[in-house]
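Bumping with the actual sequence this time:
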Amino acid sequence: DKARTARWMVHSLDWGTLTTISSRLGDRDVPFGNIYSFVDGTCTNSTGIPYFYGTYMDQSLIDSMANPMVSLSLSEASVSSVCGNKEDRIEACSLESRFGDPENPVCARLTLTGELIVLQDGSAEYDFAAESLFQRHATMAHWPRDHNWLIFKIDLQDVWLIDYFGGAAIISPDEYFGVDLLATTK
């Protein structure tokens, strides 16, 4: 089912493109895409909520102060998660396969859209997200302390998925969060 595929991607993938409306490029509404690592929980606990680690030194967080609406775009072609197996790679996504390509509709693409929210340091959600980020992206715990790192999330408002020919599926947040996902299930 489409909602399960979307949740599986958010839990299984480790990075994607976070897109904001640029505050750097003047008064035009110009999108700005930036690669970001993320998690939706520990390997054994999927929340469906993308959590990120960043600093206001980064353009995406600077942009979010002017317009907090963001999108996170993911491709099944990037499957090689810390929590999964490299053997989980999808043949339909692989350029090494005769018919494979990341743009192939059978190679799922997902875009989550919502408001970027900075978590309150010391809150239970912040502590959970920090544990999850440092478990799956261990190097983050060693990044320079003087950068004033923050943990933030997307308050999900829209889920857009292509995983087959025939156009995109629009999945409601209620349907998306209603999936009871196990980390090894697709």
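The tokens above came from a reply further down the thread. The chain has four helices and seven strands.
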